[in-house]
Amino acid sequence: MAEPQATDPTTANAGDETPQVDEASANAGASMLHEPEYDVEVQLSDLQKDTEHPLGSAASFDQLGLPLPVLRGLSSLGFQKPSKVQEKALPLMLANPPQNMIAQSQSGTGKTAAFVTTVLSRIDFDKPEQPQALLLAPSRELARQIQGVVQSIGRLCDNLQTVAAIKGDIPRNEQVKAAVIVGTPGTVMDLIRFRQLDPSQLKVLVIDEADNMLDQQGLGDQCIKVKRLLPKDIQILLFSATFPDKVMKYAQTYAPNANQIKLQRQELTVKGISQMYMDCPSESNKYDILCQLYGLMNVGSSIIFVRTRESADKIQERMAKDGHRVSVLHGAYEGKERDQLLDDFRTGKSKVLITTNVLARGIDVSTVSMVINYDIPMKGPGDQMHDTETYLHRIGRTGRFGRVGVSITFVADKKGFNALSNIAKDLGIELVQLLPNDWDETERQVHRVIKSSRAQAGFVPSAQATA
């Protein structure tokens, strides 16, 4: 099976900002990690097809005509050559006149570095306080992380100014004076309307996790309103690990005449993750099984995903009373408190984090070796339908930076078994069954994966899960 490829660079931020990216990944350059064996499909827009000399691939960053400080910044982070996604996407994104791009590419394939490199190549560093690029993300955590990548790749760019446009960070009536703005759509929309952010000279709009941003009603409406406030000729770059068909159709309207790149569907699962499920006798047994897994969670760092904020709080309180050290993070926490909780998790002050889907997308923490789906991701009215995209995003929080990882999904009834079976079918994967009455075997399997040099994805749902 294909191994994970070089991920995006993430080092401490420049300037006075608190580092929002994982220190351990700062040295995880392209020369140290494995290139996956997936193919990248390219679909050129009609506009691109009409050119006499359509752009091809770039075998090296030198071929892209990047500004020298950007080129040196990439080199300093260990990026010796473009990843497969970058070698296809960058020539198209950097072309003049600028063209839109819709890119379906999972985390760990270099997508963040691709759009950050494009942004840094578009801006005029002689105008450091003039907003020129806007990057939108669904959560403050991901926005701060992307800002860290901008500062990492742009570390050698003179006068690079960046601002995180997230709730509570920019005082009322204070002008946004930075070339690169990274934020959430609601806050950015307010800043423009209150005339704190001048959008008139913006050249590039990047939307990360675009499937979620354009599909979710609240964020989708905000992204539409933000776009209406921007220059009509702005270059639009949409990136996401998944693009369901209905979202893709809307994305093509949002970013008209866009070039498109995508990975083959079967390559969307993270191959460095051994995907397992725990056959729980009943819903009420899930908590006790979670506590029994606690020792394995501390081998590295672990994330426990639950369906609701209330469930996250209750599990955290109960585990704390039972003597287990766990943290909880979800949308009910205020911004600064959320920042601190995530920073504590990044630095290892806390090793087990219970959260909702707020952290399912894009967050990179290199030490995460286990993800537990305490609740299977579901969607639709009454949570009646399995949510393959969210499952994929959740498990992608482990197995990062060329390392190995384990995901364990709790199955407690027929509905859960059917949902997980459908997810496995959608992704073309097999799942390893774990039994709660054989902890020696469970520990052996999990330890073997975490300590191995290469994780093998394998796991077939068993009929025994249909309790």
UniProtKB/TrEMBL annotation:
Q: Please give the Pfam families that the UniProt record associates with this protein.
A: DEAD (PF00270), Helicase_C (PF00271)
Per the record, what is one GO cellular component? nuclear pore
Ranges of residues in domain Helicase C-terminal? 289-450
Give the PANTHER family listed for this entry: ATP-DEPENDENT RNA HELICASE DBP3
**Compartments it resides in:** Nucleus membrane; Nucleus, Nuclear pore complex
Give the record's family classification: Belongs to the DEAD box helicase family. DDX19/DBP5 subfamily.
Tell me the segments the record calls region Disordered.
1-30
- Provide the membrane topology annotation: Peripheral membrane protein
Task: Say which enzyme class the record assigns.
Answer: hydrolase
Give the chief site where it resides. nucleus
Say yes or no: keyword Kinase present.
no
Question: What is the species of this protein?
Answer: Monosporascus ibericus
| Function summary | ATP-dependent RNA helicase associated with the nuclear pore complex and essential for mRNA export from the nucleus. May participate in a terminal step of mRNA export through the removal of proteins that accompany mRNA through the nucleopore complex. May also be involved in early transcription.
What is the top-level taxon of the source organism?
Eukaryota
Q: Which reaction does it catalyse?
A: ATP + H2O = ADP + phosphate + H(+)
EC number(s) on record?
Answer: 3.6.4.13
Coordinates of motif Q motif in the sequence? 59-87
The segment(s) forming the Helicase ATP-binding domain are 92-261
User: What name appears for this protein in its UniProt entry?
Assistant: RNA helicase
